[in-house]
Amino acid sequence: MDDSKDDRTSNNTETPANREKTRAVRFIGSFNHSLDTKGRLVIPQNFREKLGDTFCVAPSFDFKSVAIYPTEKWEERNETYEKLGKLNPALNRYLEQFYALSYDEQTCDAQGRVLLPVNIRQKILREERDMEITGANDHVRVAALSTSGDAWKNFNDELPQLLELIAALETQKE
Q1: Number of compact structural domains in the chain
Q2: pLDDT digits (tens, 9 = 90+) for 42-89
Q3: Considering the domain boundaries, does residue 91 fall inside one?
Q4: Which of 100, 104, 134, 147 could form a disulfide with 30 if both were Cys (CB 3.0 to 4.6 A apart)?
Q5: How far apart are CA 131 and CA 34, in angstroms?
Q6: What is the DSSP letter of 63?
């Protein structure tokens, strides 16, 4: 008797463990930590678990913070950039700087710290020590605490317009 069919059936059965495997990884929440003297930053445990054993440290899209991507999401971002075309000079300038400040195969040490490379600390975080670590859906965002207050103020100022935009998008969806 061939048991392989039974194995496939049992593996396709929806269980809490199977749902967990197919659920999208989302980073949510906010934490404050300081860089130590060597430039290491504690990554909160729930973020570490979702990042996996190795991950990528890169600038955020707007170069105002550091983004830490699970390797799979990093590869998706690279594929998106590759599809945009290599003949666009503005895109090429952007990508040159983006990749110059990107570091793949990063890991956390036994204490859950990641060493943020000097170049990204100097250019993006401006050598500040106090950081806000936030979930940004598909990646972890690290920003200097001094600038995160500005971002919050800007968000509050823009909130009425953002809510109107969201309402318009919801209306279009229907």
Answers
A1: 1
A2: 999 999 999 999 999 999 999 999 999 999 999 999 898 888 877 888
A3: yes
A4: 134
A5: 6
A6: S
Cβ atoms 150, 142 nearer than 8 A = no
Tokens of 6: 């039974």
Contacts for 142 with CB less than 8 Å, ≥ 6 apart = 41, 65, 66, 67, 68, 116, 125, 131, 132, 133
pLDDT tens-digit series, residues 23-49: 678 999 999 999 999 999 999 999 999
CATH number at 61 reads 3.40.1550.20
Q: Would 160 be classed as within a structural domain?
A: no
The domain in which residue 126 lies consists of 24-145
Which backbone phi and psi does 159 adopt, to 5 degrees?
Answer: -55, -45
- The C-alpha atoms of residue 155 and residue 153 are separated, in whole angstroms, by 5
Distance (Å, rounded) from C-alpha 26 to C-alpha 138?
A: 5
Token pair listed for 21: 């495997």
